[in-house]
Amino acid sequence: MSVIATRKNLSSGLSLLAIALATVLSGCQEQAPISSADLGEQTAAATAPTAEHGNSLDGKTTDIGIWPKLDIPHSNEAEVERRIGELLAKMTLEQKIAQMIQPEIRDISVEDMRRYGFGSYLNGGGSYPNDDKHATPADWIALAEAMYQASMDDSLDGISIPTMWGTDAVHGHNNVIGATLFPHNIGLGAARDPELIRQIAAITAKEVMVTGIDWVFAPTVAVVRDDRWGRTYEGYSEDPVIVKAYSHAIVEGLQGSGDTDFLSDQHVLATVKHFLGDGGTEGGDDQGDNLASEQALFDIHAQGYVGGLTAGAQTVMASFNSWHGIKNHGNPYLLTEVLKNRMGFDGLVVGDWNGHGQVAGCSNESCPQAANAGLDVFMVPTQAWKPLYDNTLAQARSGEISPARIDDAVSRILRVKIRAGLFEKPSPAKRLLSGKTELIGQASHRDVARQAVRESLVLLKNNDHLLPLSPKAKVLVAGDAADNIGKQSGGWSITWQGTGNSNQDFPGGTSIYAGIAQTLKAAGGMAMLSPQGSFDAADKPDVAIVVFGEEPYAEGNGDLDNLEYQRGNKRDLALLQKLKAQGIPVVAVFISGRPLWVNPELNASDAFVAAWLPGTEGAGIAQVLFAKANGEINHDFSGRLSFSWPATPQQTRVNVKDADYRPLLPYGYGLSYGQPDKRVDADTAYALALTGNTLSEDNFSRRTELAPRPLFERAVKSPWKMLIGSIEGERISTQAIGSSVQHNSVLSIKTQDRRVQEDARSVSFNGKGLGFVSLQGNFPEDLRAYTDAGAALTFGIKTAARLDGAVNVGMSCEGDCRAAVDIAAALNAAPLGSWQEISIDLGCYQQQGVNFGKILSPFVLSTATAADISFSDVLLVPHGAADATISCQ
Q1: 289 a catalytic residue
Q2: Which residue of 3, 577, 797, 831 has the smallest Cβ count within 10 Å?
């Protein structure tokens, strides 16, 4: 039977359902890979590995001999170890456990710090003192001082050990209004300049210290293998040589180097992250599984740790990802045997945002497995810190976590604090740089940031030597990123995702348009700003600069399923083509966190600049695009691709040294002024889709084989989790469920056998309110390939009795985005008590506004009526729309 669905107004209950789901989420020269010498890389970092075999990790043979014994500075200092021993001898078990707990500023009070004496605390991305986005430096210092003094107050917890504040300052002090924000790592990698990286890190350390903070969660040393990953821009390069050298430089910039400057009053603690292999997950899935061999894990993914640890990094952050199915937060081989015992790291290992809760058998509130594996500090935002503290204390008392493991963890925490001088330094408000607000965003810092912008730019195309432009020209500046500091800065900019900001949130910063306007005004030229590319006929421009690109995102919110830019909505391409059709030379300035397939946009541009995510100093772009008033080159393009550029949207894994290496533009590519405007020839190994002077615009979408995607098949499939929820008035409750019987006020759910044991779920709704069962992800998922393929959502379902009300199968996506289809008629038309297969054309959801590029929940079964409903085998089936049970055609 076929049912034709119509668009219906969703009930207020379903609107609340969407809120509930959102709440749960909380030269043209083709260079060879650069050598160590080219980057001034530190040598003598590691001893030659020896062959040692026979270890086993969950049935997998490991080889500890692959890993080097590192020469780490400041190790085995007798006075430090003596002080650790004295402190340990004085500490109670309660005090030791408190050192291992790191809560977040939104979830603890100063009195909590006084009571427990936490070893450290953090502010997450988009978290501020007093929950005020516009908190002043004085507000940051006041909180740092209050927390420090509470940690030193022994009236309640019985001991005085200074706490530490950690923050994600990943491209400058990016949570603080007015700070200097540098280009994200992907742009810095294109600069190939470790000394510049060292300067950037030192400036970041100073701006952080102005606000009284001790510890920075940087650098990220991921070596990205699949550019679909939402954290690609946090990687410097696909080449571990760059990552290794940069890691060494940034750690020295943050922490200082040598015996005189190491962790002085000009420096902060650094964190090399995320250990290990986060850039190599299957499918580019954030927090996914890395299946690399152990040799590749070292050769590719561990080189940043060789660089950072030999520079003296004091902390390492464990990664969300798994290695061959074992979550790193609970992997004793990687955390203890490799990192600590073999490589010789004696600092502390801190977890990532409730990452311990993802370890098998764990929750956010209890995870002895992570402590036993070698995690020293639990990063535990939300109110889960209190039960985690209580449970860890109980596990230590029972011996589930051994006394030796507790003492080792606390010794490492104390070692870092002693080396950082926290026992001797004044309180945060009285430190050397504290309160010197003139350092935040000061002119010399912004000068370095503009240098970084200039060096990061990569010129991909320059037909007829259009660039550099004359600063005396009449220039139209178009595109929605032209006058948007938030968009050019990307994620991790004031807010976690980098969204919700205006130019006023970046005082002292300069948009790309503002930099262009300043340059033209000084030389007698003219700048016209029109995001839509409009102009009066009398003011036809000599040239148009179109600034466009990705919207800001962070972490898994940026995951894609292929690399086509603006897939399904080519508005920026239309703008480029409109201007070109009017006979206006077009310069494209592309803002992105990764290489993307932009062949149509390249074709529609006369010059094309990969600008990455340049940060707050947009004026650096104008300094390269425009010549001096006398026609001389002002600054040349020196950036070279540190990531290979894809030839097709599906070429998501293309990395230098691959066996079959055929990108569109290779690693090391980049034009400079004065070079011939050479293209990559169609018959070279580097081009798959060149035809004369025009790039192929075939996105291969119709020829891409797409398999059915299970969402729930016997069990919930990654990355989804199953939740149940209820909505009573304005009250929304949700809870994650497993395979046991669970219930809330309006429904109960249990496993059921359909074909094999426990391959289905049976849900009993009592009719006392709106209840729902949903498959929910931590981050939006890109499922546009399935709408492109005319897919249907299919599932097995049965009901025990006739339904008197609506039963909705819905979806939700990022933002105020949801839709539902009532399947009650289809259920009532089928024999009661019998399984049937229902399929829903995904077009039904598209017509209601669902964005399949940002799916948070692909399946939500909800009803407010009394009903007993069972479901199984929930899949997305390509080409299923044509024969769907429920169609919207």
Answers
A1: no
A2: 831
CA-based max dimension of the chain: 84
Among 278, 352, 781, 822, the one annotated catalytic: 352
The type of residue at 168 is D
Element (H, E) at 19: helix 12-24
**Cα–Cα distance measured from residue 483 to residue 476, given in angstroms and rounded to the nearest whole number:** 13
Active site residue 555: yes
Q: Which of 104, 239, 346, 555 is catalytic?
A: 555
How far apart CA 461 and CA 585 sit, in angstroms, is 13
Is the backbone peptide bond immediately before 103 cis, with ω within 30 degrees of 0? no
Per-position DSSP letters for 699-732, written without gaps between them = --GGG-----EEEEESEEPTT-EEEEEEEETTEE
Q: Which residues contact residue 660 at a Cβ distance below 8 angstroms, ignoring those fewer than 6 apart? A: none
Average pLDDT, the chain: 90
Strand-strand pairing, 322-323 and 315-318: unpaired
395 three-state secondary structure? helix
Please report which confidence band the pLDDT of residue 223 belongs to, taking 50, 70 and 90 as the band edges: very high
- Quick: pLDDT tens for 711-750: 998 888 878 889 999 886 545 556 666 555 788 889 999 8
Structure tokens at 299: 């050769």
Q: Which class for 834: exposed (0-12), middle (13-18), buried (19 or more C-beta within 10 A)?
A: exposed
Cα distance between residue 243 and residue 245, in whole Å: 6
Taking alpha carbons only, the member of 652, 704, 853 closest to residue 224 is 652
Instruction: Give me the half-sphere count of Cα atoms (radius 13 Å) on the Cβ side of residue 71.
Output: 7
State the sign of the Cα–Cα–Cα–Cα dihedral 460, 466, 472, 474: negative
466 pLDDT higher than 70: yes
What's the rounded Cα separation, in Å, for the pair 792 and 114?
56
Say if CB 859 and CB 874 are below 8 A apart.
Answer: yes
205 and 470 Cβ atoms separated by less than 8 Å: no
Residues counted in the chain: 889
Quote the CA–CA distance of 132 and 802 in Å, as a whole number. 52
Convert the pLDDT of each residue in 269-311 to its tens digit.
999 999 999 999 999 999 999 999 999 999 999 999 999 999 9
Q: What is the DSSP string of 760-827?
A: EEEEEEESSSEEEEEEE-SS-B--HHHHHTT-EEEEEEEESS--SS-EEEEEEETTTEEEEEE-HHHH
CA distances from 210 to 152, 266, 877 (A): 21, 10, 55
pLDDT band at 101; cut points 50, 70, 90: very high
CA distance 195 to 197: 5
508: exposed, middle or buried (Cβ count in 10 Å: 0-12, 13-18, 19+): middle
Residue 695: what are its φ and ψ, rounded to 5°? -80, 145
pLDDT at 38: 44
CA 521 from chain centre, in angstroms, equals: 38
Find the range with the poorest average confidence among 312-321, 337-346, 409-418, 767-776: 767-776
What gap in Å lies between CA 310 and CA 293, rounded to an integer?
24
